[in-house]
Design a protein that fits this description.
Blueprint (H helix, E strand, L loop, with lengths): L17 H10 L12 H9 L4 H15 L12 H16 L6 H12 L7 E6 L6 H12 L5 E5 L2 H5 L4 H14 L9 H11 L5 E8 L6 H4 L10 E6 L2 H6 L4 E4 L5 H12 L7 H11 L6 H11 L4 H12 L6 H11 L2 H14 L4 H9 L5 H10 L4 E3 L2 E3 L2 H14 L12 H7 L2
Helix pairs in contact: 1-3, 5-6, 8-9, 12-14, 13-15, 14-16, 17-19, 17-20
Length: 432
């Protein structure tokens, strides 16, 4: 039986084995040693009802063991909020080892956004591919979205606009996000835009347009800006600063490469999972860090790929990286892609061409006909930071996506001989 909480008069549910609860107590931090007296009455309650003494002893030992785990103490209920804030800060600090160097970017963009101001602001984040623009925008979005009446993060705008009906789909997503309805409830995009203007008029919203180009025609999407309420914020990310000039964005922030010490920290966080470099790899680690450049994407992918690999693989990777000039980001990433076993490389190409933004289970189902081990192969790509999962959907950085598609295109010049066709234009040319 589970001991009732101290002071509880609720009924006691039936158990499924005395040892089961000792294991639960060992796995959950339910109290500190000084607090164990609070369970004294519960232990006594079970003892009086004939629970096996060995079982009670295990419960008590488990409580004492849990009580020895260092942690924060809440001396009074008035301090509980403070303790929660400290815990959240500690967790974020632990997680942020995978976002090395991002905080100072976030702080500078936050100053431009100035969310306390009541005016409407559009802020642009620009820089070459792989510097972390989308990551910065997403980080800020998650930090401030609850300050707004409506929010929408339109990711990979450049990729979506290349698809048939892509702009309409983006408008539809914007409408759905801001109004909190599904696409099926929207009769047309124009109706949705009208609904936004009427229902969100004078309300504060947050919109992120990720990865735009100067050639984009975003007027249909940006047409709602004149209807937004005071305090609204729009964040635009782009590789080309001219895109910001075209849309008359005056508040800009350029994301450059990482500082040398940040590169080393980020690489080690992925290559050694935050632990100090082993003695036999310490020198190799420094040599690789000095070779891969200062873009977070390259650092993360190379470091993740080398995690738990042999010294021989490290040496081979270093030799291949040294052959590539520093500015050639995709060529450095190609070193890792070429080193992948055939099964991993095939699934990488499939995702790059077809499955970005698609449900992981759908892709795995399709792959299962070709290889029953596709799930474990995908996990390797995820652990290598080549593929990521967001809300159960497959995601890949656009530099890796473009690299994968270039591999397919370069193998054969004629579209009809390409192993994968991912656009209507390709399919049309292949049929000619």
């Amino acid at each position: 039986m589970v001991p009732p909480r101290a002071g509880s008069d609720c009924g006691v549910p039936q158990d499924d084995g005395p040892d089961h609860h000792a294991r639960l107590l060992q796995c959950h931090a339910i109290g500190r040693e000084k607090q164990i007296h609070g369970y004294g009455e519960a232990i006594k309650w079970h003892r009086e009802r004939g629970i096996d003494p060995d079982t009670l002893r295990k419960w008590e030992e488990a409580l004492i063991c849990v009580g020895s785990i260092p942690g924060l103490e809440i001396d009074s209920w008035s301090k509980e909020t403070l303790v929660i804030n400290v815990l959240v800060a500690n967790v974020l600090r632990a997680l942020n080892r995978y976002f090395v160097g991002i905080e100072h970017h976030v702080e500078r963009v936050m100053k431009l956004l100035n969310v306390e101001s009541s005016d409407i602001r559009v802020v642009g984040i620009h820089g070459i591919g792989g510097t972390g623009k989308t990551t910065i925008a997403r980080f800020i979005y998650k930090r401030i979205f609850d300050l707004f009446d409506g929010c929408s993060f339109l990711e990979n705008v450049r990729e979506h606009t290349k698809k048939p009906g892509g702009l309409d789909n983006l408008q539809g997503q914007l409408v759905s996000d801001l109004l909190g309805v599904t696409h099926g409830q929207i009769h047309s995009v124009d109706d949705g835009i009208k609904s936004i203007r009427s229902r969100l008029l004078h309300k504060k919203v947050l919109i992120v347009l990720d990865d735009i180009e100067p050639s984009f025609e975003l007027t249909p999407i940006l047409s709602i800006l004149d209807s937004l309420g005071s305090g609204s914020r729009i964040i635009i990310t782009t590789r080309d600063e001219q895109a910001l000039d075209k849309f008359e964005v005056s508040l800009k922030y350029e994301v450059g490469g990482m500082r040398e010490e940040e590169v080393d920290e980020l690489f080690c966080s992925h290559a050694f999972r935050g632990r100090p470099a082993p003695a036999d790899l310490a020198t190799l680690s420094k040599k690789i860090v000095s070779t891969i450049g200062r873009l977070p994407l390259t650092v993360e992918v190379v470091g993740s790929y080398l995690y738990s690999k042999s010294k021989e693989v490290w040496e081979q990777t270093l030799n291949e990286l040294r052959k590539v000039p520093e500015p050639q980001v995709q060529q450095k990433l190609m070193v890792i892609i070429k080193a992948l076993p055939d099964k991993q490389r095939l699934i990488f190409l499939d995702i790059a061409c077809f499955f970005i933004g698609e449900d992981k289970s759908v892709a795995c189902y399709l792959w299962s006909d070709r290889d029953s081990a596709s799930g474990s192969v995908l996990e390797v790509l995820i652990n290598s930071s080549i593929v990521k999962i967001e809300n159960d959907k497959l995601w890949m950085h656009d530099q890796l996506r473009d690299l994968g598609r270039d591999i397919v295109l370069e193998k054969h010049l004629k579209p009809g001989k390409h192993s994968r066709l991912w656009s209507h234009e390709q399919a049309r040319c292949a049929g000619e």
